[in-house]
Write a structure and sequence with these properties.
Layout (H helix, E strand, L loop, with lengths): L12 H12 L3 H13 L3 H25 L5 H10 L1 H30 L5 H4 L12 H19 L2 H30 L18 H10 L4 H4 L5
Subcellular location: Membrane
Protein name: Amino acid permease-associated protein
Main location: membrane
Length: 227
Amino acid sequence: MSNEHAIRRDLGPLALMFAGLGSIIGSGWLFGAWHAAQLAGPGAIYAWFLGAVIILFIALTYAELGAMFPESGGMVRYGHYSHGSLAGFVGGRANWIAIVSSISVEAEASVQYMTSWHWQWAQDLYSVSGHGELSITGLILAALLVVVYFLLNFCGVKLYARSNSAITIFKLVVPALTAIALMLSGFHGENFTVGITGGDHSISISADLTAVAISGIVFSSIVSIPR
């Protein structure tokens, strides 16, 4: 491969690892747990393990393909190599839509986090209709956050790496401290066996699978798969 067509390696292994971790640890670590518990109840813990196994197989597949075809734009090229130009085109457009939409998803998630602040302006970011719709102020703030997140990614890989490494460290520390604080304040080991013996809180396999698919368990990890 000639130098003019070689892949630019502006990120080191540590920055790449932080980029992957930063993609995984996003809004899903709270929203995913919340929605999974609503859908699967006590079986939500098993939904997370099942989701981890599914993502592991997908990640290992892309790791193998990435080593076999060390080229940029893997999500487009792999489909092109295996099924032709049409499959590559469809896969590329689908991947582009997924990446673009994730920015707006994270922007709205950021606004939703802000509604827990005690200031009145933060609590007014959602409309009073109760249907989960952003108010005018919330829409404006979400739009501004979309611009900020876009510029952060657009301004350059090195800038993204520097800022993302610091943000990822923060993302690792906060959930870890939260989990430790919750366990120290009241850890109940019997909750891991609730529903196994049946009864009112019995575990449902269909509910677990639904939680894996739509609660955010897979979504929070799939965006970190290298393209």
